[in-house]
Amino acid sequence: MHNIEITDLKKLTQMVKDAYGYDFTNYAMSSFRRRVNRILELYNFTSVSNLIDKIKVQPAFVEEVVNEITVNVTEMFRDPSFWREVRDHIIPNILLNHKSINVWHAGCSSGEEVFSMAILLREMGISDKVKLIATDLDNSILNKAKKATIPIKNMELNEKNYIRFQGSASLSKYYKEQNGHAVLNPALVENVSFRKHDLVQGGIFNKFDLVLCRNVMIYFNQNLQNDVLKKLHESLFKYGYLIIGSKESLIWCEIANKFIVVNNEEKIYKKIRE
Question: Which DSSP state fits 269?
């Protein structure tokens, strides 16, 4: 473990922001420090200064750094009770008033949440009524998501989650095994548009009936969470739903009074005011 000073972290974030436009200045300091430490160990750097020098002489390296800083451990049908709630209540409620649905997966990482949603919609028989937009800051992880392949070793946990979700088939119905990977049926993701988008600095680009931004904001400090939640609020139609991660909360933020709590356990909120 390296003893990383806050001044070093500030130098790093400033340089990456000025030179490449990635803004980590409002990331939660403890988790940011942990990620930077991991990078130093992975690439055998002796200090943050070495890391900064490497990025300066090799601009492409910044993508690998961003990848490490924003990496999210993800699984399919994570929190199965949450997915049951989406299937049994949230989507049927939206369909009471809409013939079609727009869904945004904000900070989609390698796509497991998107694939879960695609399977859920297929089992509900409404894939053709739903457009999914999945965004992330990190190009390499987006490219991974677009391939819709998952290491086969992860499928045992995914299958367990799916069984607890009470899916109507077996997860193995949705993929073929190839070279140690589960390759998902391409038809599953034909209604998904994967796009690069920066939650911190990007603008509002569409209106949605349902926005999932789960386990993304735990890495942000309160100011940044506030800004991002304002954007998510603006991106929702009135009476649209916002879903955040189990360790995250809306209660304290400026726009809290523009939502009602639909399900506190699963962190599901409904927009009631513009």
Answer: E
pLDDT of residue 247: 86
Q: Are 39 and 12 a contacting pair, CB within 8 Å?
A: no
Last residue of a domain, one of 19, 46, 70: 70
Q: Give residue 149's domain range.
A: 80-271
Which of 43, 70, 97 is at the close of a domain?
Answer: 70
This prediction's pTM: 0.84
The DSSP annotation for 173-229 comes to GGEEEETTEEEE-GGGGTTEEEEE--TTT------EEEEEE-SSGGGB-HHHHHHHH
Domain count, the chain: 2
Q: Tell me: the pLDDT tens digits for 153-188?
A: 999 999 999 999 999 999 999 999 999 999 999 999
Edge-to-edge order in the sheet of strand 181-184: 149-151, 181-184, 175-178
Q: What are the structure tokens assigned to 127, written together? A: 């894939």
Same domain, 48 and 180: no
151 CB-contact burial (10 Å; exposed 0-12 / middle 13-18 / buried 19+):
exposed
